[in-house]
């Protein structure tokens, strides 16, 4: 049996002078402001984490991530994603499709690195990680350069236990 779920996340950029780094899909992007949030605010990994919660019905972002971040000092969103993957039980992710809206930075130079990072985190083939990006044409806060928005759709299937 196959299942599909969608997740999304968005964060505003930090204020000028803030030292927070921009991380998207587990990749550090130099020269741009970071995103506001208690964690590293990686909207790409947060969107994937939320999509996984749509399959497992176990919410990671919120109370569980707040405990990791605020009480244990874990701000790395890869940890939250791994927590979500652990809730899948007998299901495995076979594909993820990601759409990012951001005026800045231009994401084309980072897409291959993000695909590689995500495929490693999810233990799937890099060709099963699709990422598209749009500038938003100035129509939304993200298209005006005030932050980044991400939507992720995952496809999972029951694990083949005959191996």
Strand order across the biggest sheet? 1-6-4-5
Secondary structure tally: strands: 6
* Tally of distinct domains: 1
The biggest sheet amounts to: 4 strands, mixed
Outline: globular
Radius of gyration: 15 Å
Report helical residue fraction.
Answer: 25-40%
Superfamily (CATH H level) name:
2-C-methyl-D-erythritol 2,4-cyclodiphosphate synthase
- CATH class, named Alpha Beta
- Assigned CATH architecture: 2-Layer Sandwich
Structural class comes to alpha+beta
Strand content: 25-35%
Would you list the SSEs in sequence order as H and E?
Answer: EEEHHHEHEE
Terminal CA distance: 17 Å
CATH topology: 60s Ribosomal Protein L30, Chain: A
Short synopsis of the structure:
With 163 residues, the protein is an alpha+beta fold. Helices cover 27% and strands 28% of the residues.
Give an overview in words.
- Helix content is 27%, strand content 28%.
- The chain is an alpha+beta fold.
- The chain has a single domain, classed as 2-C-methyl-D-erythritol 2,4-cyclodiphosphate synthase (60s Ribosomal Protein L30, Chain: A).
- It starts with a strand and ends in a 5-residue tail after the last strand.
- The model has no long low-confidence stretch (mean pLDDT 94).
């Amino acid at each position: 049996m196959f299942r599909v779920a969608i997740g999304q996340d968005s964060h505003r950029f930090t204020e000028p002078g803030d030292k927070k780094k921009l991380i998207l899909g587990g990749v550090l992007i130099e020269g741009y402001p970071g995103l506001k949030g208690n964690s590293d605010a990686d909207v790409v990994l947060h969107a994937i984490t939320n999509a996984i919660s749509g399959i497992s019905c176990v919410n990671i972002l919120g109370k569980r991530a707040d405990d990791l971040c605020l009480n244990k000092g874990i701000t790395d969103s890869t940890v939250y994603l791994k927590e979500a993957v652990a809730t899948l039980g007998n299901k495995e992710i076979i594909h993820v499709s990601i759409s990012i809206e951001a005026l800045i930075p231009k994401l084309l130079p980072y897409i291959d690195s993000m695909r590689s990072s995500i495929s490693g985190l999810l233990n799937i083939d890099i060709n099963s990680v699709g990422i598209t990006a749009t500038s938003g044409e100035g129509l939304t806060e993200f298209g005006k350069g005030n932050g980044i928005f991400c939507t992720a759709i995952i496809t999972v299937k029951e694990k083949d236990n005959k191996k």
